[in-house]
Fold each of these.
Amino acid sequence: MRLFIGIPLARNTANDLTAAVRQLRAEATPESLRWSAPESWHITLQFLGSATRQQYDCVVDRLPALRHGPVPIQLSALGIFDRAGVLFADVRVTPQLLALQQLVTVITAPCGFIPEDRPYHPHITLARRKGSGGGSELRNLKLQNPGPNLSGFTAESFVLYESIPAPGGSRYEIRERFLLRPGPA
């Protein structure tokens, strides 16, 4: 099974993002991009990748011990990962979000998961280019739309997702949900 840990979007934020994507789709060439389904939108805390049943059990046993209060989330401008061909809504890295992400990687390390060595760049994937084309389409969408007005929210939980490959792109199933609550003072 392929796993990752993330924060689901609040309903009002997902609704705002849906309206913004509707406008972006109207401006895009339909055959050049594959748009992400709103139910797949999330903010990744850690991509775990392929996991054994023992690793899954280890993560599920360890994550409830994580103590961190609710985290304010604020989306910002549109961005692109040019080489990967991804259009995304950027998420501001606040001290609280970074601390949560770091705690998650510390807690999952004994289960055999290695944190990425790249800086943490939280985002919400909106579209991917199809094939090798679509790069200029992504750049044009970003230039023409500096950033939608998106509401922030306070994350009160995070989720262990399973990524299940499908012909139109992976679908994500929630396996476990964990509440964010501060530790003892």
Amino acid sequence: MDLPKHFKLYLISQGCSPLTVKNYLSDVKDFFDWLAQKTGIHYQTAGQAIFGIFTKETIREYQQDLMSAKTPHSTINRHLSALRKLGEFARSQGWLSENPATKVKNFNFSSSQITSQKILKNFKKYLEKEKKNPLTIKNYLSDVRHFLEWIEMKK
């Protein structure tokens, strides 16, 4: 089964623009490559059975790995949109009873992100006032930033 070809036809039938089709296919390929690296299961050989491991937990782990790779939040959100559409496609084919990708939220660029930026800025000022060396400041800020992103993802 040529899963990308069938997904592409589905996207076209749903009225997606050519650019959206191109981006979603690329994002889904990235997800399947990541999944193969994590599990050793390739969609090319698994076919529709690949959706047995297309779970909320798997998608959240993928989201976390993208965050760890410092992928911009807007790019991660686009990947999640592509996975939601992939889940819709799988449901339309009867391969899934529900779409687990709808249970994974996008990053919200709301007041919580602004609050996180203020926390980081104030923490940096505090560390500088305490005369911490620049490398320590960089590492502390990175750790706190990851923690704040983790909290946001758990909402």
Amino acid sequence: MKIFAWYRLAACMMLLLLIIVLPVDGVGVVSVSATTPVSTAVSQKAVVTANASAATITIGDPVTIGGSVTGSTVNEDVQIWVFAGNYVNVSTVPIKSDGTYSRTYSTAGFPPALYYVFVQAPGNDGTFDLDLAQSGVYSGQVVTAETGALLLNFTGTGSVQDAAASSALANALNEGGMDDVYTKTTFRLAELPTNAVTTGVPAATSLPLPAPTTRSPLTPLTILLSVGIGGLAYCISPRR
């Protein structure tokens, strides 16, 4: 009897262990998805597009930078950065009701170069994280809007320009804590070619020369016919 009691006790313990460890009809299993639902709502940043009116602009002709801003956090303005060499211009441009923006720039007096363009839109906080230093629009110092810390400089000692400046500005906008979104493009300013036709007079064209004529060589048959005709004429001609 005692042996049977021990077997029955051992069987009950094994059954209890199986109920706790193994998922039998949901018993002993904690379902995270059922008891603690996880929110899937994610704040979507704005999406910015940008393009220049042409890939190459003749100096003196205007260039227009335009695009669109879409998303759940669209603000009122974008910042357009245009820079080449030690020149940099940052302007605030309003976003229209249809989500588009544009600004036209004069290129008169600008040097020929490849110009880099960044279009920056604020994140969820509604403010631009990067800006030029308040000491002047053309100071060339890029600082954080919150602390004023210098991030890069377009002019002076330790400055970066052109492709290096483009990479440095992108790296600054990609830093942790920056929630601004941006896109970039380029356009080239070129001088008018010196050999360009500036009048309405068409260029003179030369007529094709006539092809030279060639004489066919005399063949033996041609010679015999000529001799025969000449002899016949001699025979029938009146004799004196």
